[in-house]
Amino acid sequence: MAVKDDVLNAMKKNGKPMSAGEVEKALKIDRKEVDKAFKDLKDEGAIISPVRCKWEPAKK
Q1: Alpha-carbon separation of residue 2 from 8, 28, 34, 37, 52 (angstroms)
Q2: What is the pLDDT of residues 3-54, one digit of tens each?
Q3: How many alpha carbons lie under 13 Å from residue 45 in its C-beta half-sphere?
Q4: 16 secondary structure, DSSP code
Q5: How far apart are the C-alpha atoms of 51 and 15, rounded to whole Å?
Q6: Both ends of the chain: CA-CA distance in Å?
């Protein structure tokens, strides 16, 4: 759960859509961890993709 929170917080802090590679570099964690967090966050509706291959927190 902590990785998902870290990913979401990094995206909020960045203030613009981010790719998995950008999140990986920002958090210095393994890409597989980022990809799993992205999948879980997408399934929960917590992130959206405004442009291809980039994600941002969903507006709630």
Answers
A1: 10, 14, 11, 9, 26
A2: 999 999 999 999 999 999 999 999 999 999 999 999 999 999 999 999 999 9
A3: 2
A4: S
A5: 14
A6: 20
Query: How far apart, in Å, are the Cα atoms of 11 and each of 29, 38, 49?
Result: 14, 11, 12
User: At CB < 8 A and 24+ separation, what contacts does 26-34 make?
Assistant: 29/3, 33/3, 34/3, 34/7
Q: Return the structure tokens found at 21.
A: 């590679």
- 2: which strand partners? none
The CATH code of domain 2-57 reads: 1.10.10.10
Alpha-carbon distance 36 to 39, whole Å? 5
Instruction: For residues 48 and 59, give the distance between their C-alpha atoms in angstroms, rounded to a whole number.
Output: 9
